[in-house]
Amino acid sequence: MADLVKTKSALQMVAEFVDNDDRAITLDNPASLTTAQFADSINAVGDYIKTNNVIIGDKEGANFLRFKSAKKIVTTSIIYDLT
Amino acid sequence: MATTSLIINTKDTADKALQKTITNVNAACSSGTLKTFSQMLNGLTSNIYLKTDRVDKSNVDTESTGSTGSTTARSIDIQATQYVAEQQKNTLGAVNNDATEVNILLPLTGNVITFRFNDTDVDEIPSFSSIVVNGDGMSVVNKSQTHYASTHNMEVMRNTWEMSLTISDATVGSITVTLEIPASDTYAAYSRTLTFNLVDSI
User: What count of other Cβ atoms lies within 10 Å of the Cβ of residue A21?
Assistant: First the structure.
């Protein structure tokens, strides 16, 4: 039996609220998009959240300000063959 | 505090079910708005199936303890006294409970204002209260505040907030003093702001 390699990726977006509090929203299985496409889509979601006041801060109930950062996290796990 | 969460159920391309909970969703949002929001988030993923549930959750620990759910408004008397060089200059008196402004006579040298908020006939000491002082044109050089609870008639509780302000020389200005007491199971939240104005004569 050979080593078993598993990869898992997630998209982590950090939402900023007007009370300076941050909250990360992590989505599993991100789409295969280019950096520019991700930026456009994430900014579009941010604009929508802001326009419709969809999510609020967990401490003060403060309004959403923007997504201040986003990163794609790829985790590679190797299960070693010990036989 | 009641909170609203959005649960997004999706399936990835391998038909594996995934669930994402977005907490602290604005309770005022319409279902249509939340649906569009969910679709936009799903557009950032390779997931192919989308179903959303909205969960409105109440904190039962604090919201179910009151049997009726109704609260009583606090009735707090306010007394303010102006001292100049430790001599009582002017009893600002039991300030009318509807009053929002109190006038203070010049001069201000050695001027100390003491005032009390008296909360009588209550059976509860607030877990938290605060007095906030904001000056506009006048500065407070010294302040002290005390909150004490005592009983009178052997049974009725009285809460007293006492505060002294020493004010620097000034010819014009005002100070606002706000007493805030959060809501409890028995009493509604209380907030009262008094403005003290400097005047030449009353």
Answer: 14
With tokens 């969703």, the residue in question is B25
Chain A closest-CA separation from residue B80 CA (Å): 34
- pLDDT band per the 50, 70, 90 thresholds, residue B7: confident
Strands ordered across the beta sheet of B17-22: B17-22, B3-11, B49-57
Over residues B111-145, the pLDDT tens digits come to 666 666 666 656 566 656 666 666 655 555 555 65
- What interhelical angle do A35-52 and B31-43 show, nearest 10? 170
A10: three-class secondary structure by DSSP: strand
Q: Report residue B30 as tokens.
A: 């319409």
- Give the residue from A55, A67, A73 with the most B CB atoms within 10 Å of its CB, the best one to mutate: A55
ipTM over 0.90: no
